């Protein structure tokens, strides 16, 4: 079994009373991000929640902010723009856009609660080349639902 790849990421704690992002268990893909403040989300409401941390993602990588499955399953709380993108040039506080999908129950995110996960992924950038016509493919221009059977 090979060791997982690691990359060094500079981390600034903007709120030193909160724990730094961390992996809950060995082998976890996402490091937990925590709420900096209490926030109550009414049913259907969204809010941008501060995490108290800023990072310097190395060039050639992206940070992806994913929902926590426990919050989603138990309370209907998800990340609205999942996955959120943290570009390598961004140096501001990480913020998570949370959405309460529950139809009837408000949910209060508490300071220090784990609200999302940050994953690092290597990226390739595209070099776009304008062409008069795209090469053909088996799928062609068939869109949504075109790969299913009817």
From TrEMBL:
One GO-annotated biological process of the protein: dUTP catabolic process
Residues that coordinate or bind substrate: 68-70, 81, 85-87
Cofactor(s) this protein requires: Mg(2+)
Broadest EC class assigned to this enzyme: hydrolase
UniProt xrefs under SUPFAM superfamilies: dUTPase-like
dUTPase-like domain mapped to chain residues: 19-148
GO molecular function: dUTP diphosphatase activity; magnesium ion binding
Record carries keyword Secreted: no
Gene3D superfamilies given in the database record: 2.70.40.10
Pathway: Pyrimidine metabolism; dUMP biosynthesis; dUMP from dCTP (dUTP route): step 2/2
Entry EC number(s): 3.6.1.23
InterPro entries noted in UniProt: dUTPase, dUTPase-like, dUTPase-like_sf, dUTPase_trimeric
Pfam families, A to Z: dUTPase
Keywords on record: Hydrolase, Magnesium, Metal-binding, Nucleotide metabolism
UniProt entry tagged with the keyword Hydrolase: yes
Function in brief: This enzyme is involved in nucleotide metabolism: it produces dUMP, the immediate precursor of thymidine nucleotides and it decreases the intracellular concentration of dUTP so that uracil cannot be incorporated into DNA.
Assigned protein family: Belongs to the dUTPase family.
Protein name: Deoxyuridine 5'-triphosphate nucleotidohydrolase
Organism: Kocuria varians
Origin organism lineage: Bacteria, Bacillati, Actinomycetota, Actinomycetes, Micrococcales
